[in-house]
Hints:
This protein has one domain. Helices cover 62% and strands 0% of the residues. The protein is built from 4 helices and no strands. The chain has helices spanning 2-7, 9-12, 31-43, 47-63. The chain starts with a helix and ends with a helix.
Amino acid sequence: MFKLTKYGVAKASNLKDYDSAMPAFDGVLTDVEIVAALSWIKAQWPPEIRKHQDEINAAAQRSD
């Protein structure tokens, strides 16, 4: 989610021709501000959704 927010969907997903209405926030928000915003959003999710997202994040970190 961090990469999607910072770089936008196309760049974060390496999809050259992908068109999205979601802007990239690189240069608009600092990394700390992005993490804070995503943390707040995540805090609103039900526990089972947070657990699933934590699993996705852990898998992504292992593949980086």
